[in-house]
Structures are given as C-alpha cells and as structure tokens.
Specification:
The chain is mostly helical. The chain has helices spanning 2-18, 23-32, 37-61, 67-80, 84-88, 93-114. Helix 1 (2-18) packs across helix 3 (37-61) and helix 2 packs antiparallel against helix 3 (37-61).
Length: 117
C-alpha cells in the first residue's frame, strides 16, 4: 500500500510537470504486476483523472492554463474517449503491450529529435 502511495507521489510530480498525464508510467507498472491491459488502462484513467484535477488547479494558480484551448481539446477528447474502451476490449493483451510500447518509443524519439537546441 505504501509503495503504491509513493509511486503515485512520484508519478504525480512527473505528470503535472510534463503534461504527460501519468498513464505512460502507471499502465506499464500495473501490467508488470499482473493486471490485464484493460484493468491497467481503466485504473490508470482513474488515477489520471484525479491527478489531473489537482494539477489543473495548481497550473491555473500559476497562470499556465489556456482555458479556451483546453475546453476545445477536451470536447473532442470526451467524444473520442467513448470509443477507446470498446476498441481495447477487442485487442488481446499481447498486442496492446506491443502497440503501447511502440507508441511510447515513437513519442520518445519524436521528443528527442524534434527538440531544437
């Protein structure tokens, strides 16, 4: 229990500081501890919702929120989010792990090589 709390603390700091949401760390951790992909994703979404609520309040206090853009992005995201769980229910865990891993490597590569110094 304490390990989960500590992990949540670390991921909360990282996700609120990077805007990555935390799911990129929570999902692999939960899968590695025996959760199915479906349960790991659903649990991660719960975590992200609660952490994001706190994070947006902190960023708002710092003047780091463009509310109009956030609402427009969220409108599309809310609609799109209705399809993700249905799609995930039709994807075997092994395929999910591979696709998730490739997405993470692709995003990591993009961040490394698209950054202008």
């Amino acid at each position: 229990m304490a390990a989960l709390w500590a992990l949540g603390l670390v991921i909360g700091v990282l996700s609120s500081g990077t805007g990555l949401g935390g799911g990129f760390l929570v999902v692999p951790y939960l899968v590695s501890t025996g959760y199915t992909a479906k349960l790991a994703v659903g649990t991660s979404v719960c975590f992200v919702l609660l952490v994001a609520t706190s994070s947006v309040a902190a960023h708002y206090r710092e003047g780091n929120v463009d509310i109009k853009t956030g609402i427009l992005l969220a409108a599309g995201g809310i609609i799109g989010a209705q399809f993700g769980p249905t799609i995930l229910n039709h994807v075997p865990d092994e395929i999910f792990k591979r696709v998730f891993g490739v997405m993470m490597m692709g995003l990591g590569g993009w961040l490394v090589f698209a950054t202008k110094t």
